[in-house]
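REQUEST
  id: r-88c1
  op: predict_structure
  target: Sugar efflux permease
  payload:
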Amino acid sequence: MPGNADQAEVIRAKKGLPGTALSTMSNTMSTTIHSDSASSSHPNTSQPPTQSTPTKHPTTTPPTHERIEPKLLLAIVATGIMAFVGILTETMTNVLFPTLMEEFGIGTSVVQWLTTGYLLVVSVVTPLSSYLNHRFTLKASFAAAVALCIAGLLIAAVSVNFPMLMVARILQGAGTGVALPLMFNIILEQSPRSRLGLLMGVGNMVCAIAPALGPTVGGVGVAAVGWRWLFAILIPVLVVAGVVGVMSIRQPRPTGRVRFGWGQLVLLTIGFVAFVFALDRCGAAITAMSSARSGGTGTLIVAAALLVVSIVALMWFAAMCKRVHDPLIHMGVLRSVPFRWHLLAYVMLEGVTIGFGYLIPNLAQLGFGSTTTVAGLLILPGALLGAVLAPVGGALLDRFGPMRPILLTMALAIVGIALMLLMVRPGVSVWMICAGYIAYMIGFSMAYPNTMTAGMGVIPQRMQPDGNAMFSTFQQLAGAVGTTVMSICLGVAQSGYSLETDRSAYAAATQRGGRVGIVVLLIVLVCAFAANVRAFVARRMPR
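RESPONSE
  id: r-88c1
  status: 200
  body:
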């Protein structure tokens, strides 16, 4: 059965034998990927390799420094730029909210859909990556993603009303949903095994740093050139990335005809949209109840109904994926216990970082009276340090295995959030928040990519497109949830206060909401730490 040799390597790594689960994958893996990719349909996962009994198999330890081909590096850079621009606009738009609200005459509850709606589109399109990976060439998928993103940026740059800008964000979300998993598929399929951790660190650096840089770019850019030019300036960047990608991306395997599951896509869309709307309505209900306004109970009932719809739709989606021959995502990948827990930790880490991308700029402006530029610059030092250290974390994984680099850096991230919690109080300079955020980003930027690498390392090579789709899909959903939850924390605290009539009381209320938000994010990060610990315990247990 394909994947037994991979499991034998994982068992050897857990027992302290030479090599790690990621850096000692044998030539059997190469044989498996070629034999599996020759088929036009997904393999049957009713008996997943993760549950088979490992057999003895001779292993071949790869060279310590395998060469990374220049074309592979260019392909990763091109797809990485695509994903970077898409994610950058996500949090960049958060800083533009006050400007857009004033220009288009809309409220907070409407303008936030520029980010939430974008993330929902990305989370719905991303599960298609496994289908696209088997049906179309990597170059064709890349070209489609470039075209969608450029069209979205162009429409955004000339938008004259909110609906037009919303269409632009939807197009950008569709392009990012294709580009993000495409980058990881290229890394997982074509990277030298001994350099996988390093290249995954580079790839995940895009996911970790782009949302952190967004507020800085938005805050400085809107003051310098205006919000429309922020979108227009990114178009030439994507054109260059498109040319480089078309010239460098190669096709390592044949494609074939695979049936597309429209019913599965509809159920997944309903499940995700209903879930985010349920959170939004729940926040509205809490806000109404805390300010003694009417309608809170009815809104809470609507939120509960939407949550039920979401659960039913997602359970139906999972059941349908198990029944059909060509599902959008093979649910058999979740039978691996370590994979499940690493996935959960990864999703929570993403939610925390996207939550900070929303919370810190708004807290700085509304709670501490900072300018848009200062609010954006607060995140810059941590983002730059994170960009430098993300590949370092991957190199540490290649050398020491995943457990120590992940757990130690997550502990540092927890300390960073605790420091931020101490700094959010009256009389403290807003720049003090920056110190805690730097510590958080140092730990997060090294733990985040390694968590995905560790999760992908415990499943067979032939199921990695499905695993990649899982990580990328829930990553974007976590971003939407993180943004929504942080807006609820601030909105509930600000309820009953007015920025126009009593600025100081409104600022104090925002600071209280910010502290609640940081506590929530700290709890989520601790849970992510526990999830990774559980994954490593499961990796050491006999199968």
